[in-house]
Design a protein that fits this description.
It contains 11 helices and 14 strands. It has about 300 residues and is an alpha+beta fold. It folds into 2 domains: about 230 residues, 3-Layer(bab) Sandwich (Hsp33 domain), CATH 3.55.30; about 55 residues, Alpha-Beta Complex (CBS domain Like). Strands 1, 2, 8, 9, 10 and 11 form a 6-stranded antiparallel β-sheet that branches.
């Protein structure tokens, strides 16, 4: 199944449902950053969460930043996701590995530890909106759900998962279900939805069983006036870094620092944190930056 995001409503528009399959993009992140099993699961869950949160934004340039900062050995997680379906991210310590937790699962909570989740929503104009909540488990899904309930005041359930084995990532994605104000007053409806959500033991087993996102939606709320939006949105790992951006950043260092790079290293090398791409500038290219700075100082 292609990496994609599908939106739906139920209960006359009172329930909002979004599902995402992120298997391929999570595998790309694993390869780009040479991630361990637990680091792959942590970053994959966070990237799926970012795409699910961004899915409700309106403007084409809108984006969501998720930063998980815990005291566990993984360090921090940083994810940038857009309503356009692009996402990128990294972890501070990509090679750490931990034994499975008590349930026999990858111990993402132990890798993340205690700390905070920082969420920044850039709606495409004005100042971005930022929120900070304490991590409740470090397992990512619980923590993002806590953010939605406490900061956005929306009854929500978010389930994310990654299955990674010796051959790489074979299933990844997530599900977001939100009860909007028009349905929140119907206690029987909310109880019915909560009961069904409680039966979900995970998201990746559904993908591994061959279920599509519409089939997952139908199993969950098929008898609640389910309306699936007709167009699935493709999602992908994408970074906006470029050689020109790197050269612009080097130029900010100034003439003295650039000359020092030429004299000592005969060039410069920079690695993008988000995608792992390595950019190299030779002495001639650094000298061109110096020449530009000198020309600008005379004008």
């Amino acid at each position: 199944m292609a990496d994609q995001l599908v939106r739906a409503t139920a209960a006359g528009g009172g329930i909002r449902i979004v599902g995402v399959v992120s298997t391929r993009l999570t595998e790309e992140a694993r390869q780009r950053h040479n991630l361990s099993y637990v680091a792959t699961a942590a970053l994959g869950r966070t990237m799926s969460s970012g795409l699910l949160l961004a899915s409700s934004m309106k403007r084409a340039e809108s984006r969501v930043n998720l930063r998980v900062k815990g005291d566990g050995p993984l360090g921090g997680i940083m994810v940038d996701a857009g309503v356009d379906g692009t996402v990128r991210g990294y972890v501070d310590n990509p090679s750490i590995e931990l034994p499975p937790n008590a349930r026999g699962k990858l111990d993402v909570g132990g890798a993340v530890g205690s700390g905070y989740l920082y969420v920044v929503r850039d709606v495409g104009y004005g100042y971005p909106y930022s929120s900070t909540v304490e991590l409740v488990s470090g397992e990512i899904g619980d923590d993002v759900t806590h953010y939605l309930v406490s900061s956005e005041q929306t009854p929500s359930a978010l389930v994310v998962g990654v299955f990674v084995g010796a051959e790489g990532v074979t299933a990844a994605g997530g599900l977001l279900v939100q009860v909007l104000p028009k349905a929140a007053r119907d206690e029987s409806l909310v109880e019915k939805l909560e009961s069904r959500l409680s039966t979900l033991t995970g998201f990746t087993p559904l993908l591994q069983a061959g279920k599509s996102l519409p089939q997952i939606f139908a199993d969950l709320v098929g008898d609640m006036d389910l309306q699936i939006l007709p167009e699935a949105q493709l999602v992908r790992f994408h970074c906006s870094c470029s050689f020109d951006r790197v050269m612009g950043a080097l130029k900010i260092l100034g003439e003295r620092e650039l000359q020092d790079m030429i004299d000592k290293d005969e060039g410069a090398e920079a690695t993008c944190h988000f995608c792992g791409e390595v950019y190299k500038a030779n002495s001639q290219e650094l000298q061109q930056l110096i020449d530009e700075l000198q020309t600008e100082s005379l004008s």
